[in-house]
Design a protein that fits this description.
This protein has about 400 residues and is α/β, with parallel strands linked by helices. The protein has helices spanning about 15-20, 50-55, 60-70, 95-105, 110-120, 125-130, 150-165, 180-190, 200-215, 250-260, 280-285, 295-305, 320-335, 335-345, 345-365, 385-395; strands at about 25-30, 35, 45-50, 70-75, 170-175, 195-200, 220, 235-240, 260-270, 310-315, 370-375. Helix content is about 40%, strand content about 20%. Keywords: Lipid metabolism, Methyltransferase, S-adenosyl-L-methionine, Transferase.
Length: about 400
């Protein structure tokens, strides 16, 4: 295979951007010639299938679509290429902005159900190919050492949650967005009754099988948390990696107050960003539709305090999420052939970008992760109305 120089590249386009990376790799042109990038042993090769692919616009959406269509192929370490992400432009289409506003104003239950259905439509087998084998969590584990297994990290997460809530046999807890039954499995084995809420029917079926096969106390409902009205309040609540789907924190905090007993605690975790609704256009089109948004910690804490909660603990777990997504990405790649055979190359490529991109985002602090423990007090708090909040805003202006 012949070598080529950077002069072989067009003046604009993503190929020219990649040629300036310091991470050692290779760019393969449509004619088969190869341009070396950086200094050292190459860890990746980017293959451009056509001349038009070389000129792919330097936007996240443009590069993402070119990869999904196969116009651009990546061999080797895909994660290393995300160092170029900061040089890509982010242009949110106008139609996407209108769609987001429309979804935000729609009935939350219907919108959430559709967004969840779009993401989880590949069925259980696809996700279980890369999640931990012990509890099947689609949220980060907690690593005591970087070289621990994903299964060990998931076990540590359950240990932390169990201790933070002070759980004991006979207690009743609510698990919001139960995934594949990890909380039910762990807590149920220790005599805690778990009521699971999910808006994904396949998740409900899986959790029900866990209850029956593990013979643990529990029940599961296909219902949105915002519509849940229990006959009696719960001792405690667990919500792992779900706050990203509930952007109306005021309504969330009000409902959380209603479902907890006085003194009851909530253990919440999730991926976070400094700015609310700061989700890329590619993610909105291909990964999480609807109003999915990374948690803004400051806003969640404000609403919890407004609604009568005492915040007991806030812990940064960004590094844990990075290590979790790194392991997910590796496991996805190791299952490449089976995933493509069962679910198609397009779906494999979407999740490959999602998991390696997420790993890079947590590594560079573009995204963060936290867990929050809050306790319901006996006072409902000030719960300021929208007019009152506006007056406070005006009064605080200098």
């Amino acid at each position: 295979m012949s070598k080529a120089s950077r002069n072989s590249l067009p003046r604009t386009g993503v190929a020219t951007l990649l040629a300036g990376l310091k991470t050692p790799g290779e760019i393969q042109l449509p004619n088969g010639a190869v341009i070396p990038v950086g200094i050292g042993e190459p860890v990746y090769r980017v293959i451009f299938r056509s001349e038009s692919a070389l000129r792919t616009p330097m936007t996240e959406m443009g590069v993402g679509r070119a990869y999904l269509s196969g116009d651009i192929e990546v061999e080797g370490d895909l994660g290393a290429l995300f160092n170029a992400r900061q040089n890509l432009q982010e242009k949110v289409p106008l139609r996407q902005k209108f769609q987001f506003v429309y979804d935000f104003l729609r009935t939350a239950t219907k919108m959430n159900a559709k967004a969840i259905g779009d993401h989880y439509g590949l069925d259980d087998g696809f996700f279980l190919s890369f999640l931990d084998k012990r509890f099947r969590f689609y949220t980060h584990g907690l690593f005591q050492r970087p070289d621990e297994t994903l299964e060990e990290a998931s076990e540590h997460k359950m240990e932390t949650m169990f201790a933070s809530l002070g759980l004991k046999p006979g207690m009743r807890i609510l698990d919001i967005g139960g995934g594949w039954g990890g909380v039910t499995q762990y807590c149920g084995a220790r005599g805690v009754h778990v009521t699971t809420l999910t808006i994904a029917p396949n998740s409900a079926r899986y959790v029900q099988r866990v209850i029956e096969e593990k013979n643990v106390p529990g029940q599961v409902f296909v219902q949105d948390f915002l519509d849940h009205n229990p006959e009696e309040p719960y001792d405690h609540v667990v919500i792992l990696g779900v706050i990203e789907h509930i952007p109306n924190y005021q309504r969330f905090a009000r409902r959380m107050w209603d479902v907890l007993k006085p003194g009851g605690r909530m253990y919440l975790d999730g991926s976070a960003a400094v700015e609310k609704f700061a989700v890329s256009s590619f993610t909105r089109d291909y990964i999480w539709r609807g109003t999915h948004t990374f948690m803004t910690l400051q806003d969640v804490l404000a609403e919890l305090l407004y609604h009568g909660f005492a915040v007991l603990d806030v812990t940064n777990e960004t590094r844990d999420y990075e290590l979790t997504m790194l392991e997910w990405a590796k496991r996805l790649d190791s299952s490449k052939d089976d995933l493509i055979a069962a679910w198609g190359e397009h779906n494999y490529r979407i999740f490959r970008l999602f998991l390696w991109g997420g790993t890079h985002a947590f590594k560079t602090n573009a995204l963060q992760a936290y867990h929050v423990v809050a306790e319901r007090t006996s006072s409902p708090g000030p719960r300021p109305s929208i007019p009152r909040r506006f007056r406070q805003f005006l009064s605080n202006l200098r």
